[in-house]
Design a protein that fits this description.
598 residues; ABC transporter transmembrane region fold; binds adenosine-5'-diphosphate; alpha/beta; 6-stranded mixed sheet; Rossmann fold; 10 strands; elongated; 64% helix; 4-stranded antiparallel sheet; 20 helices
């Protein structure tokens, strides 16, 4: 399930409304127009039965044809105003809703772009997407339909009650005796349906979770021949959803007819008691008809308001969750007096750097408070040097390089690039001088060219090709069906792991950074490609300071410094030869893993 179903709001409703109002505020003139239209259409709808009353009492009763014609035309005119007005009102509300929600979506996405990596460690992509899709939709529905309809329904309802009391207060009061039954039934329905509706939502969540699991893991499912089990599982949750939906509909099939019958009781009361008064001459026939028409109009707003309550609850929860995102501050920001880094030569120094990941309170496991991942790291790298980081999984290699890119900030110690503390530099100037080559290549589903340009959008075709020639990627790219314009996804099956790596290398080379961070792919490539990769790697790292999370001996041996890490500490440090001569951890690693791996 994507998240807790019973969402607990963290803000008062008034705050949510006020904050979200800011998204509608730019459209306040249009909104004002809609409110005026709303009053006009509501008044038109309230006038119509009165005109029918006049047509009957003055036209029919007194056999006055002119009056009859006049009221018939007036009725038509009022109805046209109502219908056209309603149309305009709806169109404008949809317009406002769409515009406001687009801004909400933009704000959310821009916020996501700004948020620090730690946020992404603790939030699931599905949940983050739900803010921009589902929650934004609930909000849009509410803005478009909820707000104005609630105002206009309330207004119309008050108008109807007032007019009924005005025309015949005793009959009106008699008619209103059905209200307690109606309200009672509605309350009962709301209470019961809430429970059942929640069951439906849970079941729907189960279905999509199951679906997602099976689809993303289809390779494993088929490889282990577990289609049968997946079929059972899916049928199971689908049946649960079916039952839950039917049970929820069952309630509606009691409520809806119930309300209809109660309202017909009202009609019968008006017809019987009112008709009796007409016969006795206490009331005009026109008033009776007007009463019946008002009664008809009376139930719609009530039903509508009962349903809006759900919409309102949903929208306030959605609004709250959206505000939670918008109010999140990035942990990593430029300090007030941040300076741009100058063009770097590539000296990197880590002084007594200690770091632990900050785990949100609700996820923290007790008793494991001081979970430092890096302990007092000291390291000095000269411009153009290559550092190979080696050590077991979990030793802290990736964490160390993430600190260099300031994706996280150390709790203690400083990191200096050319003598400048990176925590006091602007993020932009820092990251623009670094390039990352991730293990999984991190290519986007677009053309080879756009992928290559990612780190340097203004690179010309000639520059792109020159870089590709240097890494040796040009040959195979040129041989692709559309050359540089080939989509990497559509070619996804055609591009080998090695080729994707070469594209990733070329992208980094084109960005021309002073510092490179490379997480070497662990998957083995064939020997020819291996040589090609090593040559490309040589080109890429030439003259730049580089940090390589290394898995291959051939990479490690060319490094100027080999840093051996264990449990967040640097336990050995030197060149390959020096470390072999030492006969320590690295020597063990070399004899057991690295040597055999080549
Ligand atoms: P390596 O790259 O050497 O395999 P890592 O730097 O990935 O090691 O991990 C070091 C330690 O930090 C591990 O114990 C790991 O569980 C923990 N760790 C890594 N990433 C995170 C994270 N995003 N949040 C919390 N703990 C993490």
């Amino acid at each position: 399930m994507s998240e807790a179903q019973d969402y607990q709001r963290t803000r008062p409703i008034s705050e949510i409304l006020m904050r979200l109002l800011s998204f509608v505020r730019p459209h306040r003139r249009r909104m004002g127009g809609v409110v005026i239209l709303m009053f006009i259409t509501s008044i038109a709808s309230l006038i119509a039965p009165t005109l029918v009353r006049q047509a009957i009492d003055r036209g029919l009763e007194q056999r006055d044809q002119d009056a009859l014609m006049m009221f018939a035309f007036a009725f038509l005119a009022v109805k046209i105003i109502e219908v056209v007005g309603l149309r305009f009102q709806m169109f404008n509300m949809i317009w406002i809703g769409q515009h406001a929600i687009m801004k909400v979506r933009e704000n959310l996405f821009f916020k996501y772009l700004d948020l620090h990596m730690g946020y992404y460690d603790h939030n699931r992509v599905g949940d983050m997407m739900a803010r921009i899709t589902e929650d934004s939709n609930s909000l849009q529905n509410f803005i478009t339909w909820g707000v104005i309809n609630t105002i206009s329904n309330t207004f119309t309802l008050i108008g109807i009650v007032g007019l009924m009391l005005f025309y015949n207060w005793s009959l009106a009061l008699l008619t209103f005796t059905i209200l307690p039954a109606m309200i009672g039934l509605t309350l009962w329905w709301r209470k019961r349906s809430e429970v059942r509706y929640r069951a439906v939502r849970e079941a729907v969540g189960q279905v999509s979770a199951t679906l997602q699991e099976s689809l993303t893991g289809m390779r494993i499912v088929q490889a282990f021949v577990r289609e049968y089990r997946e079929r059972e599982r899916f049928s199971g949750v689908a049946t649960t959803e079916l039952t839950a939906s039917l049970r929820s509909d069952q309630l509606a099939s009691i409520y809806m007819p119930g309300i209809d019958i109660i309202s017909q009781v009202g009609v019968a009361i008006v017809l019987g008691v009112g008709g009796f008064r007409v016969i006795n001459g206490d009331m005009s026939a026109g008033t009776l008809v007007a009463f019946l028409l008002y009664l008809e109009m009376f139930f719609n707003p009530i039903r509508d308001l009962a349903m809006r309550l759900d919409q309102f609850q949903e929208a306030s929860a959605a609004g709250d969750r959206i505000l939670n995102v918008l109010d999140t501050e990035s942990d990593i920001q430029d300090v007030p007096d941040a300076r741009d880094l100058p063009v770097l030569t590539g000296t990197v120094e880590m002084r007594d750097v200690s770091f632990k990941y900050i785990i949100p309170e609700n996820e923290a496991k007790t008793g494991k408070d001081d979970a430092h991942v890096l302990h007092e790291i000291n390291l000095k790298v000269e411009p153009g040097q290559m550092v190979a980081l080696v050590g077991h999984t979990g030793a802290g290699k990736s964490t160390l390089v993430r600190l260099l890119g300031r994706f996280y900030e150390p709790q203690a110690g400083t990191i200096l690039f050319d003598g400048h503390d990176i925590c006091r530099a602007t993020l932009k100037s820092l990251r623009e001088q670094m390039a990352w080559v991730p293990q999984d290549t991190g290519l986007f589903a677009t053309t080879v060219k756009e992928n290559l340009q990612y780190g340097r959008p203004d690179a010309t075709d000639a520059q792109i090709e020159a870089a590709a020639r240097e890494t040796g990627a040009h040959e195979f790219i040129a041989a692709l069906p559309k050359g540089y314009e080939t989509d990497v996804e559509e070619g996804g099956s055609r591009l080998s792991a090695g080729q994707r790596q070469l594209i990733s290398f070329t992208r980094a080379l084109l960005a021309d950074p002073a510092i490179i961070v490379l997480d070497e792919a662990t998957s083995s490539v064939d020997t020819v490609t291996e040589l090609q990769m090593q040559a490309a790697l040589g080109k890429l790292l030439e003259g730049r300071t580089s940090f390589v999370i290394a898995h291959r001996l051939s990479t490690i041996t060319r490094a100027d410094q080999v840093v051996v890490m264990d449990h967040g500490r640097i336990i050995e440090h030197g060149t390959h030869e020096e470390l072999i001569a030492q006969g320590g951890h690295y020597y063990d690693l070399y004899t057991t893993q690295l040597q055999g791996g080549e």
